[in-house]
Amino acid sequence: MGTSLIGHIDSDCFYVSCERIRSYGLRGVPCGVLGNQGACVIAKSYELKAYGVKVGQPIWQAKKLCPHAVYVKRDFRWYETISRQLLNLLKTLSPSVEYYSVDEMFFDASELERYFDLPLFDAAQMLQTLVQDEIGIPVSIGIAPSRTIAKLGSDSAKPFGVRVLDSDCEVFLHSQSVGELCGIGSKSERKLKEHNIRTCWDYRKADRLMIRDLLTIKGEALWWELRGEAVNPIQTQRPPHKAIARGGSCGGKTKDQDRIRAWAVRNIERLIEALDHHQVYAGQISLQIDANKTALWLGRTPLAAPSASFRTFYDAVMPMLEAAPRTHPISHMHIIAEELTWRDKVQKSLFFEEPQSPLDKLKREINQKLGRFAVRSAETLPLQEIYHDATHNYDICDISGKMCF
Amino acid sequence: MCTGITVGRHAVPEKLIKKYNLEERLIQRSEQAEKEILFMQRHRFPLLPVFYQGEVHIMSWGNRDREKNVPVAWWGELSTLQSGAWSHFSPEPAEILGSFGLERGVWFQIPQGIKGIVIHDQRQRPYIYMLLQPASHYYEVMTGYQREPVFIGEQI
């Protein structure tokens, strides 16, 4: 808190830009990055966007819209490498940087002019050029008195633009729909429209208490931010998690109980790894399984004592899995660790087992030495296709330290 | 199987571009993109760019002519090659150059090239056969096909 200028740096089509760093032939080519084991587009270049291809679109639809586009396999480990390079570069010229997501960062821009010895707009352009030259990715930059306006600025400047705004930016705020505000979803947008608040300028001019009634304290924070008051500060460290989840697609819909159990066990192993990384134990385990993008089942099991033990999690998850309905094929599964406590603050007990067994510790040590999933439960063997493909060993949620997805 | 590949124009020597009239096969995916040379199996004279014996060649992609004493095929199965079934043709390893490959309407990136074998006919003319293997789960989901080329360096 306390900075008078906040910058927002946002990479343009980040995953594709990362791929273009290591594959020169992809430059200028309509390009999509495929996720969900090759089934759908998770990122697209501006050239591909021009053909109407959208994020989340299945590959069979995308290839019809743009038959000459090239598709590449996602590689989150590589994207993290580039992302951290950008983070480190920003840290050299800003006193505080927030690792907001893999492709977006907020930074204190108050020293930018001095660093480049240029007026603010030119300094921001120099930063943009520096990132392009040093890291190889195009970025858009917004600079404003608050992070909300800075983000609006960089979003509106895309691709490869720079926008510097002050708190008195009426024309700009008139041009921005309230739906563009980070934190305003479609439901909130509808509520605001009922009160004839359509643009960010309308939002700023609205009665503060009315906004608070409509959208709670978070809506009021946005109201202040739009007036140039930086009420949401730059956070240089991620606050502790309330819950940690691991899961996702089950590689297509399945009713095969062996595969479903295998996915559950793999997700337990990934979850324990994440708890080890964050140095926390879980007090409660939840299981959510989905069919056709709707929650089919949500089970919750409190644990007798805080734990990060495979055996304990397995014993909690498997009965929930058994109890889940079997009528629909399962498409997605998440295992969620809740009621997290720091490992160094857990109360020791004489009557409960250790939060992790010697086997858990041995498994962790071997995997840290030989690579993820080098030692894994035999129950995950039905997922051979996953283990044959090393890119499945790393996911976007494995990139630690960022504030959001 | 992979029914087409492209290779960046810069990867093929000028004399080969002229000799095989490859200018006719140039494509560009957008104004800013690099020019690529297109090699399709359905071309009247299917060709492939091959790195063989230390230099780039343009070779016939498989053989359609039963008069010639080389296999009438476009590709060879890696497991068949390893079993020794092709040994009487004296196959030699070669590397098929490529930037992008085409399978069932999906263009994908070729990371480092594709493994192939060169077989000579009775007049010592070379033919290149692409090697195939069972597709990875990813490749099968992406293209809907159960076989994929033997990529050099990694399996996509």
From TrEMBL, chain A:
UniProt GO molecular function: damaged DNA binding; DNA-directed DNA polymerase activity
GO biological processes: DNA repair; error-prone translesion synthesis; SOS response
Pfam families: IMS (PF00817), IMS_C (PF11799)
EC number: 2.7.7.7
Enzyme class, UniProt record, top EC level: transferase
Keywords annotated in UniProt: DNA-directed DNA polymerase, Mutator protein, Nucleotidyltransferase, Transferase
UmuC domain: residues covered: 6-185
Gene3D superfamilies: 3.30.70.270, 3.40.1170.60, 5' to 3' exonuclease, C-terminal subdomain (1.10.150.20)
Cellular-component GO terms for this entry: cytosol
Signal sequence, renumbered to the chain: none
Entry keyword annotation includes Transferase: yes
Family recorded in the similarity comment: Belongs to the DNA polymerase type-Y family.
Name assigned to this protein: DNA polymerase IV
Source organism of the structure: Gimesia aquarii
TrEMBL record, chain B:
Stated name of the protein: Uncharacterized protein
Domain of life per record: Bacteria
Organism: Gimesia aquarii
Lineage, opening ranks: Bacteria, Pseudomonadati, Planctomycetota, Planctomycetia, Planctomycetales
